[in-house]
Amino acid sequence: MAKLFFLYSAMNAGKTTNLLQVAYNYRERDMRPFLMLPEFDCRSGFGVIGSRIGLSADAHTYSVHDNLFERLEQAHLMERIDCVLIDEAQFLTAAQVDQISLFVDTINIPVMCYGLRTDFQGELFPGSARLLALADEVRELKTICWCGKKATMVLRVDDQGRVVSTGAKIQIGGNMHYHSVCRKHWRKQIYAKRPQDSDQLESNNFSEECYTEILSD
Ligand SMILES: [Zn+2]
Hints:
The chain is of the alpha/beta class. It has helices at about 15-30, 70-80, 95-105, 125-135, 185-190, 205-210, and strands spanning about 5-10, 35-40, 50, 55-60, 60, 85, 110-115, 135-140, 155, 165, 175-180. The strands form 3 sheets. Strands 5-2-6-7-1-8 form a 6-stranded parallel beta sheet, sandwiched between helices. The protein has a 3-stranded antiparallel beta sheet with strand order 10-9-11.
């Protein structure tokens, strides 16, 4: 039976790099991955999934109005799909996650969704909440806060370096920056070490946490 996967993390944990690696692994075996991303995410160009380390791949775009069961079923009928990889999956609607799970269960093709768990206000994205509820396998891709602890939260920061705690959930690009931090520094709204901070590298688990899992299946 194919599975629905949700691979989540804070920002900059290598989600997109991981997705592109999985796509590469499928192609290397003469199998066909089907890549998708939201149409409003044009940071690497329209219909392009790009990672911070310079890798990129063409992808199919979807809007929040698309029925993804129908989209994927039609694509599979036109040319066989072996795996579906969805980037920025936090932007899926709850209904679309249901449609994807129906595709997994009826067409028997695995779908791997990569996304953020929570927004900068610490709230679950609707798509992520539904994925946490429905996915067969949920995996965390780890990254670290500046203090060395595991980063599980995201801070939104403006051009002046000020932490922003209000505004729309979805703001792709623009003048905002995002930093991954531990829950303590998310609460304190500190996204980088400052000279006046007494915080030391407080955890001994740096070496354990300072990696990104690469999944090959
Ligand atoms: Zn921290």
